[in-house]
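Hi C.,

You asked whether I'd gotten around to modeling the 93-residue construct. I have! Everything is below, sequence then structure, no commentary in between.
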Amino acid sequence: AVWGIKVEPDDFRVAIESLISSDEKEGWEFTYERVEYDWAVYSGVKDDMIRYVKAITVCEDRAAFFLMEYHRDLKVEYDPIVTRMEKSMQSKC
């Protein structure tokens, strides 16, 4: 999934932490989490699934997100896709 939201720069961290909290309430256990002023990434597992989320701030008051979910058995196949998607996310304003 790919989406965007309107968010003031000072509220970016709050938006990410809210998303993480919501995912945790759904049963996701996060194994990696890093939240900075203008970007964030987290990943974790639930049952046999992996979830990877990356977000960046773009154009002052917006943020772009992508989320990938895939079966643990497909991790090796999905790693290059996740890496390519992550590298493609750049602010172009």
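If it helps when you're writing up: The chain has a mean pLDDT of 91.

Thanks,
B.
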